Amino acid sequence: MPDLPGGDADFRVVAARARDAATTLAVVTRAAKDAALGAMADRLLAARDPILRANAEDVVAAEGSGSGAHLLDRLRLDDDRLTGMAQGLRDVAALPDPVGELVRGSTLANGLQLQQVRVPFGVVGIIYEARPNVTADAAGICLKSGNAVLLRGSSSSLHSDTAIVEALRQGLATTGLPADAVQLVPGRGHAAANELMRARGLVDVLIPRGGAGLIRSVVEESTVPVIETGVGNCHVYVDAAADLEMALRIVMNSKTQRTSVCNAAESLLVHEAVADEFLPMVVPALQQAGVLLHGDDRFAACGGVQPATEDDWGAEYLGLEMSAAVVPDLEAAVDHIRRYSSHHTDAIVTGSQPAARRFVAAVDSAAVLVNASTRFTDGGEFGFGAEIGISTQKLHARGPMGLPEMTATKYVVTGDGHIR
Amino acid sequence: MPDLPGGDADFRVVAARARDAATTLAVVTRAAKDAALGAMADRLLAARDPILRANAEDVVAAEGSGSGAHLLDRLRLDDDRLTGMAQGLRDVAALPDPVGELVRGSTLANGLQLQQVRVPFGVVGIIYEARPNVTADAAGICLKSGNAVLLRGSSSSLHSDTAIVEALRQGLATTGLPADAVQLVPGRGHAAANELMRARGLVDVLIPRGGAGLIRSVVEESTVPVIETGVGNCHVYVDAAADLEMALRIVMNSKTQRTSVCNAAESLLVHEAVADEFLPMVVPALQQAGVLLHGDDRFAACGGVQPATEDDWGAEYLGLEMSAAVVPDLEAAVDHIRRYSSHHTDAIVTGSQPAARRFVAAVDSAAVLVNASTRFTDGGEFGFGAEIGISTQKLHARGPMGLPEMTATKYVVTGDGHIR
Questions:
Q1: What is the ipTM of this complex?
Q2: Rounded distance, CA A287 to CA A305, Å?
Q3: Please, which residues 238-257 of chain B have a Cβ atom closer than 8 Å to chain A?
Q4: Are B246 and B341 part of one and the same domain?
Q5: B90: CATH
């Protein structure tokens, strides 16, 4: 059994080690980082047995404490998932290095050369739930973007996370990069999370990954700058000018292709002009797929539809449920979305160019889609190759966050003795 | 005497009005915003008498309460300053509109069109001190970037701020844009600031402008995402390979050209190899300019130099004082800067390309300068045309913030019925 990394250290010591590691990482080459990611993947596979044994301990404990099937599914590792985690590290190695990218450059009137270049944040904190795969994913993305990471998972995945971090650190060490680039925050429970959240100056950015409750508490309590991720109450609006067969495909895909994810649709809005035709198409189709509808009066008049309450309009069901309403026009749809959307992803289905243009301009969400499923708001689908999460805040990054979003910038100004 | 804008309204009402105004502003044309900025400038000049009367009230009260000369100077308005404020609004009108700018765009493998475009934040809160000119500056920058602004100045500039906001609102109204795009937060004192800082969901971004104490309290207490601005403990490092005449010019300019600003140098580091030659040049020159030096042993051996305490290395004097040390090599300079810098601006003077390259890579500050005065870290000098402040945090914006930094982005995804 490996030592618990950092198990004997207090938070400030761990954070100081992370800062030292970040200082080294900021100036290492892409080749060195890619080699380390490969070694991390190798060690993860080599440590298959101890990792799966550690995970089995967590799973038995979670079963014993009566955890739900959903949590157990996310917690449980097997050969396939471990192989996927290792492959994820190799995929990140294959992506371009964002560090050093020139964001803008110019020569000023006085001859000063001005360059804005991407640099790592430094130390990134990740607070997440009982999903051991996030441990490797987050470590890989942070390393590639030149950041040291402080990981704080759930108590119920502590054995798994510990074994995974141990393997990743061994991989780093074999290639000569500082093992302290990847560390678990010592301790679990709220006190450990609190130390991370109050570590302004020690930690540069904090990213919570998990459910709405976790994210809300981090946002409320953190003095470290936070990137808020993930809550998705996504809408599909079927416009008067929609191709209704296309609308049906998009609604079904947005709602049912995968229901437990933040980019699944949770609410359907239908223009009054097509309601008589579209409701008899979409209601039975959703119901046959097992979706329970919470509808306004028009929808509730269809068989099997429950009347929606005010809470339904704001609900992120993450399951086979959907709220649904008929709206008098596009502006009413926009108003509804403005009021209830979590500003993650909202889609319009329409054949009308003016309607599409107005919807795109008026809906203030991280992603606004025209004639496409809400399920496309995803770093992988967007071609980013890796994703640390989907930001629903406006500061720094909005929408799927890839490697460039894991960096800050620095101005480099070069002169020949320039003074003012 | 005009009504106090928002004086009868509670904070949530004011914030809701700002949200409505922001919704309108987000989709108005550049031409409409530029016309409004012109009208705001006109009204500011037309309201010269009531504004100067209101300002005189504030100045008399501040004098009565024994405020220092520095505060009074910043508080006091005159014809020239008012003309400058109006010209500032016209200058902002002349700048490109950041809203709608395409940040990146591509067509995905499946034919989906992906565009990332700049959009306004929505509602921006500004917390600042007794500087009435900031009222107009911030309102202009926020309007041009499509944001509604909630302004919370100091109690000691309440009459001035109220009169200025009234004029700006009248200018907006004459061109048909919502006057509520520019509002004062009702009330003053800590309670009013607190409402603004806890208004997550109502206010999108909060920018404190002022001294270190103000900024620290906003950062600690705000649940609204904050952009931290301004504290500058800036260093000039004179390398072994420096042209010492150039180094002298840069040190003198960085320290003495203007001392009360965040990009003034506060600390001087000199490579040991040139100390014997450079100290006899720089110490008398600084002293003749009235600068009190707080030096290490080497500097303190020169006449008139006080021994530096640990506090001196971290001090932002904002006046005619400077800490100074001799370092054994470039790495020691980098270590010193890492430890004490506020990560605003740090400069190297050197003729060595490897030294410049190492310093630029290793110093993690918003701006790193080579052979140029620290005073160049400024939105105006960088050619941004307008500046809301200089960010010293890593999230979202770092360094001088112009109009593009006052926006978020949105992904617009367009398909032909795409599903996953």
A1: 0.93
A2: 9
A3: 243, 246, 249-250, 252-253, 257
A4: yes
A5: 3.40.605.10
Count CB neighbours of A125 within 10 A.
30
List the single best residue of A410, A412, A414 to mutate versus B (max B Cβ within 10 A): A410
8 A C-beta contact, residue A247 and residue A375: no
Q: Structural domain tally of chain B? A: 2
Strand order in the sheet with B182-184: B182-184, B148-152, B123-128, B205-209
Read off the amino acid at residue B327.
V
Query: Given a cut of 90, is residue B278 above it in pLDDT?
Result: yes
Give strand pairing partners of B410: B117
Q: Cβ of A413 under 8 Å from any chain B Cβ?
A: yes
| Coil/strand/helix, residue A111 | coil
| A339 shares contact with chain B (CB less than 8 Å) | no
DSSP string, B187-200: S-HHHHHHHHHT-B
Residue B189 pLDDT > 80, yes or no?
no
Are B97 and B147 in contact by the 8 Å Cβ rule? The answer is: no
HSE (side-chain half, CA atoms, 13 Å) at B351: 8
Over pLDDT 90: what percentage of chain B?
A: 85
d(CA A249, CA A266) in angstroms, rounded, equals 15
In degrees and rounded to multiples of 5, residue B82 shows phi and psi of -65, -45
Size of interface A-B (CB pairs under 8 A): 211
pLDDT in tens, A160-191: 999 999 999 999 999 999 999 999 998 777 78
Q: Are B219 and B238 part of one and the same domain? A: no
Residue B245 and residue B371 in contact, taking contact as beta carbons nearer than 8 Å: no
Rounded Cα distance between A379 and A389, Å, is 8
pLDDT in tens, B54-109: 999 999 999 999 988 888 999 999 999 999 999 999 999 999 999 999 999 999 99
Cβ–Cβ below 8 Å for B383 and A106: yes
Q: Which two tokens stand for residue B190?
A: 């800590």
Rounded to an integer, what distance in angstroms lies between the CA atom of residue A66 and that of residue A68? 6
CATH code for position B339: 3.40.309.10
Does A372 share its domain with A403? no
Q: Does B414 touch chain A (CB under 8 A)?
A: yes
